[in-house]
C-alpha cells in the first residue's frame, strides 16, 4: 500500500490550491457533462456503467453495494482508499495512475482548476440526501429512438461469446482501458443503444461504425448479453 | 440441386461417422498442434484451450521464448517504444492451459498426422494449425540473400533484426543515406514499410537532420499512400525520396559488401540498407505440402487448407482472398478457426465466419492514421464487405486520438493473443 499512501500524500500536496479555492459549482456542472454518459448524480440517480455519485464524499472506494467494481478498485478500497477532495483530485487527474485496471474510460482532467470546479459540483451531492436537487438537469436521460422490439430482444450469450472475438482484438476482455474504452459489465440496454447508434452512424467512429454496421439486431443483443456479465 | 443434396448427405454421413468413431476418444483427448506463436498461432491456441475448458489438448510450438511483435516495431525504430515494450512471454498461454514447446517444427507427416521437432521429439495431432508467418523469396533482390541480413537487415521479423537496424540507424554519419528496398505485393503489413520510412525520418529529423532516405519500390502505389506522402511533406520535407515502379524502383540490385544500392542502373553508396525482399509462406507450410506457389490456399469459412481438411493455415502464410497480411487479420482468422476446430473435435456450436482488420500507422508524434475493413467468407475466398480510411487534412486532434487508439489496440490485441497481464 506504499504506492497508495504515496498517491494520497502527493494528492494532499497537489491539492493545496484546490483547498484554498472552493471551486465554481456552475463550471463544475458543465464539466460533469463528460461524466454523465456513465455516472448519474442527483435525486433518483442509479448505477449505470459507472456507480452513482450521490454521497461520494467519505465513501470507501468500491464501497457501493450492488455495483460491480473492477478488481483494481476493489483492491484500492480494501487498501483503505476513501473519496475526499484530495483523493478525487488525484484520481481525476489520471484515473489509471491510481487504479491501473479501472474500467473507467476517461483519460483524466489535466487542469487543476477544472478539477476543483468538478469536485465542488460533486460535493453538493454529498451533504445530505435531503438537499439533493431534482434529478433533471444532471441525471442522464437514455435518449434514443430505438424500436422497443430491438431493445426487448433476448441475446444468446454463447453466440455473443463467439462474436466477442471481433471486439476483444481492441477492447480488453479483462476490462482494462489502455486507450480503447472498456466494454465489460456494460448494462445490456446501454450496450444495445450504443451499438445501434454506431450502426446508424449517429455515433461517430469509423471503426465502430464499420463493425456495428454489419451486425444484425440479434447479434448486437447476443454481444450485449455476453459483455454484461464478463468479469475476469 | 441433386449435386447439392448429395454433397450435403455425404458430408453429414462423414460427420456422423467421425462422431461415432471410437478412435479419437479411445486415445484420450483430441489433440491440436499449433506451429508458430504469433498473432495467428498464439490466439488460436489460447482460444481453443480456453473455450474447450480442458477437453482439447493444445500444444503450441514456438522457437523463441520472447515474442517481439512486428506491429509497433517501427515505433521502436522511431524511439516511441522500447524493445521490452514490444516483447511478450508465453506464460499467459501456459496459464490458459496451452502446452508451450520452445522448439522448431522441422517436419510434418500428414499421413500419420505427426509433427517432428528439431529437438528430435514428435507430436501427434488430430488437427494441425500452421501460423508460421513469412520467409523471403530467394534472390528476389539481386545481390541479397539471407546471409546478407547482418549487413543489410530486413527487420521484417521483429527482434534482433529490428535492434540491428536501429543500431545502424544510430551509427549513420551526419548527412548519410538510408536506403530501403520495399517489397512487391503481397507482403506482410502493407503500410509497414512506409510507417518505417516515417519513423526513420522522425529519428533522423531529430538526430541527423541532413540525412536522406531513398526508397526503391517495385510498386506504382502503396497502402495509405496519400496519407504518408502528405505526412512526409508536412513533417520531413525534402528528406524522403520515394522511387516507385514508374521511375525504375522495381529494377534494383544491392551489394552488401560495397554497401551500394543500384536503382534503374544508377549506383548509390549508402550507409544503411534495409532490404525487404519478396515474401512467401513460412517454410513449414512448404514442408507440410500445403502451399501452391508462395502461399498456402485456404477455405474462407474456417481457414482449413485446400489440400488437407485437418490442417489449417492462419495469417501471413495463408492465401485467403481480400484480407491484408497483418497481425490483426491473423488474430481475426484465428478466432474463426478456433471456433471451427473446437466444433469439429468436441461438437461445440460452430458460428459463421466473420473477419475484420484495422491497421494503424504512426507518421510523426501524435500523427496517427488508420485503414480498416470487414470481411466475410464466400465459397471462393474471404471477401471484403465494407471499409474506411483516414482522410488527408484531418485535424491534429483527430490524428492524436487515432494514435492513442492504436496504443489501446496494441494493449488489446496482445492481451487477446497472450492472455491478460497479471
Fold-level CATH name of the largest domain in chain B: FAD/NAD(P)-binding domain
Question: Which structural class is indicated by helix and strand composition of chain B?
Answer: alpha/beta
Principal-axis shape of chain B equals globular
Number of domains of chain B: 2
Mean pLDDT of chain B: 93
Number of helices of chain B: 11
What is the assigned CATH homologous superfamily of the largest domain in chain A?
Answer: Cytochrome c-like domain
CATH C-level label of the largest domain in chain A: Mainly Alpha
How many strands in all of chain B?
24
- Can you identify the CATH superfamily of the largest domain in chain B? FAD/NAD(P)-binding domain
Oligomer: heterodimer
Identify low-pLDDT runs of chain A: 8-19, 134-142
> What is the CA–CA distance across the termini of chain A?
23 Å
Q: If you consult CATH, what is the topology of the largest domain in chain A?
A: Cytochrome Bc1 Complex, Chain D, domain 2
Question: Care to describe what's here?
Answer:
Chain A has helices at residues 2-14, 16-20, 25-31, 71-78, 85-93, 95-98, 112-123, 148-152, 157-163, 188-199, 206-213, 217-227. Chain A is mainly α. Chain A folds into two domains: 2-131, Cytochrome c-like domain (Cytochrome Bc1 Complex, Chain D, domain 2, Orthogonal Bundle), CATH 1.10.760.10; 148-227, Cytochrome c-like domain (Cytochrome Bc1 Complex, Chain D, domain 2, Orthogonal Bundle), CATH 1.10.760.10. Chain A is globular, with a radius of gyration of 19 Å. Chain B is an alpha/beta fold and 422 residues long. Chain B has two domains: 22-135 and 279-349, FAD/NAD(P)-binding domain; 139-275, 3-Layer(bba) Sandwich (FAD/NAD(P)-binding domain), CATH 3.50.50.60. Helices cover 32% and strands 26% of the residues of chain B. Chain B has helices spanning 2-20, 22-26, 41-52, 73-78, 91-95, 160-170, 192-207, 225-235, 283-287, 327-346, 396-418; strands at residues 31-35, 57-61, 66-68, 87-89, 99-101, 105-109, 114-117, 122-124, 127-130, 134-136, 177-181, 212-216, 240-243, 252-255, 260-263, 266-269, 272-275, 279-281, 296-297, 311-313, 318-319, 354-364, 367-377, 382-389. In chain B, the strands form eight sheets. In chain B, strands 5-2-1-9-20 form a five-stranded parallel β-sheet, covered by helices on one side. A four-stranded parallel β-sheet of chain B has the order 13-12-11-17, covered by helices on one side. Chain B has a three-stranded antiparallel β-sheet with strand order 6-7-8, with no helix packed on it. In chain B, a hairpin with a 2-residue loop joins β15 (260-263) and β16 (266-269). In chain B, α3 (41-52) packs parallel to α10 and α7 runs parallel beside α8. The longest helix of chain B is centred in the C-terminal third of the chain and has 23 residues, at 396-418. Chain B is globular and about 65 Å long. The interface between A and B is medium-sized, with 28 and 36 residues.
Amino acid at each position: 500500500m506504499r504506492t497508495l499512501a504515496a498517491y494520497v500524500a502527493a494528492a494532499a500536496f497537489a491539492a493545496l490550491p484546490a483547498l484554498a479555492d472552493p471551486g465554481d459549482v456552475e463550471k463544475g456542472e458543465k464539466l460533469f457533462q463528460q461524466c454523465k454518459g456513465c455516472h448519474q448524480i442527483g435525486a433518483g440517480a442509479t448505477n449505470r456503467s459507472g456507480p452513482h455519485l450521490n454521497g461520494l464524499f467519505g465513501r470507501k472506494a468500491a464501497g457501493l453495494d450492488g455495483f460491480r467494481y473492477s478488481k483494481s478498485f476493489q483492491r484500492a478500497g480494501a487498501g483503505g482508499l476513501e473519496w475526499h477532495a484530495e483523493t478525487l483530485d488525484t484520481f481525476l487527474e489520471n484515473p489509471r495512475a491510481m487504479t491501473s485496471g479501472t474500467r473507467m474510460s476517461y483519460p483524466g482532467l489535466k487542469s487543476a482548476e477544472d478539477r476543483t470546479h468538478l469536485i465542488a459540483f460533486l460535493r453538493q451531492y454529498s451533504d445530505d440526501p435531503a438537499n439533493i436537487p431534482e434529478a433533471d438537469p444532471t441525471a442522464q436521460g437514455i435518449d434514443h429512438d430505438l424500436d422497443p422490439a430491438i431493445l426487448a430482444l433476448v441475446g444468446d450469450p454463447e453466440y455473443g461469446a463467439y462474436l466477442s472475438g471481433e471486439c476483444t482484438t481492441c477492447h480488453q476482455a479483462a476490462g482494462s482501458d489502455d486507450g480503447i474504452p472498456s466494454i465489460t459489465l456494460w448494462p445490456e440496454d446501454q450496450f444495445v443503444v450504443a451499438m445501434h447508434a454506431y450502426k446508424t452512424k449517429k455515433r461517430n467512429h469509423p471503426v465502430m461504425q464499420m463493425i456495428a454496421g454489419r451486425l444484425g439486431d440479434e447479434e448486437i443483443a447476443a454481444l450485449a448479453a455476453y459483455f454484461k456479465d464478463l468479469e475476469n | 440441386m441433386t449435386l447439392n443434396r448429395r454433397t450435403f448427405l455425404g458430408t453429414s454421413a462423414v460427420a456422423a461417422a467421425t462422431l461415432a468413431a471410437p478412435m479419437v476418444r479411445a486415445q484420450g483427448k483430441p489433440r491440436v498442434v499449433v506451429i508458430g506463436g504469433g498473432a495467428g498461432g498464439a490466439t488460436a491456441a489460447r482460444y481453443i484451450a480456453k473455450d474447450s475448458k480442458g477437453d482439447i489438448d493444445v500444444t503450441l510450438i514456438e522457437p523463441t521464448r520472447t515474442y517481439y511483435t512486428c506491429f509497433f516495431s517501427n515505433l521502436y525504430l522511431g524511439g516511441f517504444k522500447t524493445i521490452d515494450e514490444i516483447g511478450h512471454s508465453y506464460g499467459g498461454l501456459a496459464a490458459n492451459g496451452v502446452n508451450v514447446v520452445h522448439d522448431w517444427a522441422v517436419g510434418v507427416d500428414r499421413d500419420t498426422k505427426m509433427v517432428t521437432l528439431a529437438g528430435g521429439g514428435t507430436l501427434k495431432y488430430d488437427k494441425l494449425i500452421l501460423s508460421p508467418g513469412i520467409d523471403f523469396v530467394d534472390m528476389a533482390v539481386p545481390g541479397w540473400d539471407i546471409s546478407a541480413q547482418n549487413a543489410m537487415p530486413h527487420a521484417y521479423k521483429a527482434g534482433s533484426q529490428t535492434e540491428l537496424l536501429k543500431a545502424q540507424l544510430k551509427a549513420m554519419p551526419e548527412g548519410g543515406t538510408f536506403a530501403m528496398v520495399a517489397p512487391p505485393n503481397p507482403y506482410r503489413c502493407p503500410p509497414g514499410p512506409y510507417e518505417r520510412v516515417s519513423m526513420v525520418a522522425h529519428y533522423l529529423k531529430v538526430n541527423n537532420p541532413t540525412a536522406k532516405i531513398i526508397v526503391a519500390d517495385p510498386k506504382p502505389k502503396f497502402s495509405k499512400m496519400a496519407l504518408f506522402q502528405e505526412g512526409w511533406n508536412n513533417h520531413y520535407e525534402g528528406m524522403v525520396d520515394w522511387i516507385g515502379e514508374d521511375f525504375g524502383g522495381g529494377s534494383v540490385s544491392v551489394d552488401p559488401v560495397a554497401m551500394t544500392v543500384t536503382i534503374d542502373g544508377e549506383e548509390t553508396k549508402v550507409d544503411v540498407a534495409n532490404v525487404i525482399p519478396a515474401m512467401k509462406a513460412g517454410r513449414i507450410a512448404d514442408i507440410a505440402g500445403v502451399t501452391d506457389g508462395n502461399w498456402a490456399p485456404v477455405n474462407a469459412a474456417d481457414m482449413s487448407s485446400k489440400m488437407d481438411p485437418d490442417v489449417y493455415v492462419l495469417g501471413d502464410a495463408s492465401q485467403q482472398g481480400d484480407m491484408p497480411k497483418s497481425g490483426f487479420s491473423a488474430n481475426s482468422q484465428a478466432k474463426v478457426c478456433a471456433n471451427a476446430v473446437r466444433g469439429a473435435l468436441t461438437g461445440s456450436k460452430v458460428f459463421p465466419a466473420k473477419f475484420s482488420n484495422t491497421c494503424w500507422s504512426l507518421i510523426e508524434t501524435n500523427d496517427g492514421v488508420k485503414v480498416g475493413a470487414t470481411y466475410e467468407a464466400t465459397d471462393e475466398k474471404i471477401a471484403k464487405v465494407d471499409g474506411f480510411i483516414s482522410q488527408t487534412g484531418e485535424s491534429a486532434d483527430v490524428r492524436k486520438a487515432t494514435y492513442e487508439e492504436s496504443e489501446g489496440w496494441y494493449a488489446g490485441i496482445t492481451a487477446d493473443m497472450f492472455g491478460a497481464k497479471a
